[in-house]
Design a protein that fits this description.
By secondary structure, this protein is an alpha+beta fold. It has a domain of 78 residues. The N and C termini lie far apart (81 Å).
Length: 146
C-alpha cells in the first residue's frame, strides 16, 4: 500500500522534528536577544542611582542592607514594619571592605582558565622522577624468610 496516502517513515519524521526544533530554538534566541535589549535599557539607566553593596539576613523577615544612593552610603534595616535608615556610612571605608561581585560569566571564565592552566601543570608533575624506584613486588633477599 505504498502511495501518496502512505505514512512517512520514522526517519523522515525524526529529521522533520529536528529541523523544526532547531528553527524554534533559533527563533527563541533571537527574540530573547531583541527583547532583552529593550528590557535592559531601563535597568541600565537607573543602575547608577541605586546600588545594593551588601545584604545580611538576620531572621527570615529581617535583613540589613548597605545601599549606595545618589553618592551616599546608607545602612538600611528591613522588617515586617518596613524599611528604616539606620545610619549613614563612610563611603571610602565601605568600598575598602566590599568584596567585588563577579558576574556568572566571569566566574565561568575564571573556572575555565583554572582548568586549562591546571592541565598544563599536570604534565609537569607527570614528568617528575618517582621517589620509590624499588619495585614493590620484588623477591625477598637472600637472608630473609619467604
Amino acid at each position: 500500500m505504498d502511495g501518496p496516502g502512505a505514512a512517512a517513515s520514522y526517519g523522515d519524521l525524526l529529521i522533520t522534528s529536528l529541523v523544526v526544533l532547531v528553527g524554534v530554538c533559533i527563533a527563541a534566541f533571537v527574540v530573547v536577544k531583541l527583547v532583552g535589549r529593550f528590557l535592559a535599557t531601563g535597568r541600565v539607566r537607573g543602575a547608577h542611582l541605586l546600588d545594593v553593596i551588601a545584604r545580611l539576613p538576620l531572621e527570615p523577615r529581617r535583613s540589613l542592607y548597605v545601599v549606595e544612593v545618589a553618592g551616599k552610603t546608607l545602612l538600611v534595616g528591613t522588617s515586617e514594619m518596613g524599611l528604616s535608615v539606620l545610619s549613614e556610612l563612610d563611603a571610602g571605608e565601605v568600598r575598602a571592605r566590599a568584596v567585588p561581585q563577579q558576574s556568572f560569566g566571569e566566574l565561568v571564565r575564571a573556572a575555565w582558565m583554572r582548568t586549562r592552566g591546571g592541565a598544563g601543570q599536570g604534565t609537569v608533575v607527570a614528568d617528575a622522577p618517582v621517589a620509590d624506584a624499588e619495585p614493590r613486588d620484588a623477591a625477598p633477599g637472600p637472608g630473609t624468610a619467604p
